[in-house]
Amino acid sequence: MSKYRIPNEKSKYYIPREDYLTAIHYSLRYPLWKQEVSDIANTARGITYDKDKVQSSRNYDSTFEAAIRIEEKQHKIQLVDDTIEMVGDDLADFLRMGVCYGLTFEQLKGKGMPCERDKYYLMRRRYYYELSKKI
């Protein structure tokens, strides 16, 4: 976690350390949620014996369970996307690559990000601040 600096209490976007780290890790799960949504879409599965108990209830509906899991993941994805759009404006794609996929400022600059370091880090701090309020 050394690449993330915890905001100072005098900072405009100060949040407690635990909330800040939660927002960081929440954002880094974004690609996993996207992958899970596409993986869950196949609901025609047989019984798997990799768990201690096998579901044997007649009332179990795998399609309903899959739909619930997809809805939960899509809600989380939408929360992150909405926060990025709110904070990022015209730099939303670069902010998404930075906070969700872990790209550094130098990597983003190499991909053509038009802003400088101070603006990007301020935008990133604001994103974590806003996300921590929504989580």
How is this structure best described in words?
- The chain is mostly helical and 135 residues long.
- The protein has one domain (17-44, 59-134).
- The chain has 6 helices and no strands.
- α2 (30-40) runs antiparallel to α3 and α3 packs across α6 (117-134).
- The mean pLDDT is 84.
Count of extended strands: 0
Estimate the strand proportion. under 5%
Radius of gyration (CA) equals: 19 Å
Average pLDDT taken over every residue: 84
Largest sheet, in brief, is: none
State the domain count. 1
**Sequence stretches where pLDDT stays below 50 over 5 or more residues:** none
Shape: elongated
- How far is it from the N-terminal to the C-terminal residue, by CA? 20 Å
User: Could you spell the SSE succession in H and E letters?
Assistant: HHHHHH
Assembly type: single chain
Indicate the structural class. Answer: mainly alpha
Number of helices: 6
Q: Can you give the helix content as a percent range?
A: 55-70%
Outline the fold blueprint.
Elements lengths: L16 H12 L1 H11 L21 H27 L3 H9 L4 H6 L6 H18 L1
Keyword list:
135 residues, mainly alpha, 61% helix, single chain
Quick recap of the structure?
With 135 residues, this protein is mainly α. The chain is 61% helix and 0% strand.
